[in-house]
Amino acid sequence: MGDLQFYLNVAVTGLSIGAVYALFGQGITLIYKGTRVPNFAHAAIGTIGAYTFVKFWDGTELQDPGLRFQVPFTSIGWSPDPPALPFVAALLIALVLTGLLGLAIERLIMRPLANAPMLNLIIVTIALFTLLTGMGGDLFGQRTEAVPTIFPQGVLVVGGVNLTYNALGTIGVTVVLAAGLAAFFRFTDLGIAIRATADSREVSRLLGISADQVAGFAWAVGSMLATVAGVLIASGAGISPSGLANLIVFGFAASLIGGFTSLIGTLAGGLLIGLSTNLVAAAPWPRGIVSDVLAGKAGPTLITLLLVVGLLMTRPKFIFAGIRLDEDTGVSFARAAGGVNAEDELRRNLDRTGHLQLLLRDWRIGRWLLGALLAGFAVAYPLFFTSSFRDGVLLNGVILSTIALSVVVLTGWTGQISLAPMTFAGIGAFGAAIAQTSWNLPIPLVILAGGLLTIPFSLLLGIPALRLRGFFLALVTLTFAYFGENFLFIQPEVLARSNLDREWFGLQNEAMYFTALGIAVLLFLAMRNLRDTRVARAFYALRDAETTAQAMGIDPVGYKLLAFSLSGFIAGIGGSLLGFFLRDIDGQSFLLFFSLGVVLQAVVAGVGVLFGAAIVGVMFEIIPQLTATPTTGVNQAPTILAGFLAIITIIQNPNGIGGSLVRFVRPFDPSERVAWASADDDGQLADLSADPTSALEARAEDVREPVGATR
Amino acid sequence: MTAPLPHAEAEPFFQVIDVRLAFGALQVLDGVDLEVHRGEIVGLIGPNGAGKTTLFDAISGYREQATGKVLLNGVDLLERKAWERPWLGLGRTFQQVTLYPNLTVYDCIRVSLHRRMPNQPVRSLLRACLRTATSVDEEERIRAKTDEVVDRLGLADYAGKLAADLSYGTLRMAELACVLALEPELVLLDEPSSGIAQRETEALGPVLRDVRDELGATLVLIEHDMPLIMGISDRIYALANGTILAEGTPEEIQSDPEVIESYLGGSIDLDAEVR
User: Fold this and answer.
1) Which of A553, A562, A698 sits opposite B182 (nearest CB)?
2) What is this structure's pTM?
3) DSSP one-letter string for A497-527
4) How many CA atoms lie within 13 A of A507 on its CB side?
5) Is the predicted pLDDT of residue B8 greater than 60, yes or no?
6) What is the rounded distance in angstroms from the CA atom of residue A193 to the CA atom of residue A190?
7) Chain B residues within an 8 Å CB radius of A540
8) E strands present in A37-111
9) Residues B180-238: pLDDT tens digits?
């Protein structure tokens, strides 16, 4: 077989993968177009759709054909076997189910957030992703299932190029659907209405178009497209509960090439990514360092990262012409239907509980007592109940809290969303391993090295953050998390040094736990010291109103990079501790999925507060692990709970549990307000009726009679 | 009326020389020249679209394409980044006030006092984390100065309130407090009276004069409220279509036929309001 034929074959495979990316991107574009919501949950919806199809289709022979409906945290449940149905019926069931799911998401979650800032929308769809992934895992089981091709078996050979019917069918379905959607938007009334709504909700409202109907349509059809994409990628290959998760990166990349508005652009984008990544993977790189670095998934991953960052940083006009400038700044997009303003709601709740608040504020001794009790528990528990397993759980909790602290500094204080905290922890862990195996440093310096080596990487991620905010920054950090998982942590040179020797701590976890606790306490104390200084105030100012902050002499570049470095350092320290706990480090501990989990947990616990970070470990690691016994309930309950709590948090109480608790026991502190609790990233017009006598008016009283005569 | 000011320095300490800026084909600033002496209050008037706010944006660093020279104490501001200009003695307010909504008024002011301390992000961070004597001392000085500014502008009742909860008039005062905390030599005020009640506007004149007299700051302000600007300005520049149309004392400007033609119009009875 000649070179040309080889590359043509690679290209065909690439195009068929790209077609799936394109279809995925189409759904994302459609939802973004119709509702301005960047749907991070798209992959989870696709997974649910594809699994439903696979379970019902009579063409599959599954190891685990049943469905499981179970009450979380219990063993009560119902496990029916779905009937084996013909292809069309199974597909219809999957489409109807995900269509309804899309409608439900729009109605129950997105509509109450109609006026929420972009950060809330990002977090809530990530929460939805976690929730749906967890629920899917319970419902469909954790098995990876083989799926036969949904197209006829066989190969069409054209000039030495193998065109499988599966590849041809995948590309064909995608092109037909894309063309159909494009025609729909061009020629039908509803399509034109959606475009009008996407351009200006105000105008469409005047024209009598219901934004809610448009949103419902976009979510339903977008979800069904995710199902089709999921079925196509499963066809002839297989499916696993988390297998589609990473598709979100490629779906967003395809949608980005379409400027998040053009369906045809998204189609071209998906095909382009599939083609280019496959060609890069197959290209004959010169043997040696280049081929080593780019081996396997690494090459395509690098290309994807460069593409996403490059496009967002340069913003070529032909792509971004359709995007309004304010869209990446997190400014909320007003919808026709009035939504609940979570911040107002929070204030009202606080007013109602004002008396309790006063009571607790005066409850000084009790607070110290509570603190002493917690500290006593942290120290005494491992001493009295000697169990390496329990010490390990406590240790994990402390590490998780440390990593959550890095989220508080970066996202809560500085307003920079990062979806890659576990990636930085991973860099810290591998950095520590390199420091120990290659440089033979003593243990304290190894831990420190893990933190310090993370700083260059967080600076690197900080550079795009200087120009991007909100959704686009989230996209870059998401891609970076994927890059960590599929490039950095699979490098042979890195994996060759992935063992940490923790003999120094002993084989039991007790000494390790106390070391980690000590380090975590030091980091928390340092951040507590920082919280009320001019450095932290520079962070808050940049978070709340960057333009004003500059006019007041705050260097946005310096302080944003400082926040990224500090956050990276903290996550890196957490990572090197985790590395010592794990001993054998591999990238599987630092997956994109886990990064999203930490961000969510920090949000639920209170991302603006140090106390929030502190309770992340207790809430999401220590309590579930120490109370759960292996027989109670289903595996996914903690994940489902975290997702569910995060959605409730965003809708009802953006300051998080920690934020509310802290507010009860002491007066307001500037660090406690969460970036996304404010209605608008660049400051906002105050409510004129808020306080009728203003300072100027009070002054007017003073100067009213003798103008200028008083001095 | 204002007492005549001693123009002790021969050389104006703030000069705008031939500043030009185009948005595509539209020449928004078409060679603007200004001269301001220390201690002056200078008004900038002109119809909408004359380029007043754009000129402020160019001076304070939000229009990086601007060409020409903007000299403050002999330093060309156009060669510096926006955030560096406050460190060179420039302060400005915005037409639409945007303070930090999640911070209290007290903290908003404290943000500005960063500029009174050494600008060494990394070193300050480490000192703050370790709570060194330097850091503690800096924070004490920041508190002392903030208390001073709060008292001066009568914001004591509002210091603990969130910026997001203030009325627009108070927000204006808080913004002014933030700018004054920078201890600027030159303050650019972009329509300080916009969006606030008439009663409050009347109080604004004395406040601004206090700022000049007691803090020694030089003020340049854009204003559409004629009684206010004519009452407090020592000199006025009239801007139209991106160029300076006229310059002179309030009396001269009010009788300038070109200014009346392009901006003031014939119908405003100024004398009735300016005592």
Assistant:
1) A553
2) 0.85
3) T-B---GGG-SSSHHHHHHHHHHHHHHHHHH
4) 0
5) no
6) 5
7) 100, 102-103, 107, 111
8) 69-70, 77-78
9) 999 999 999 999 888 888 887 888 888 888 888 888 889 999 998 888 999 999 999 99
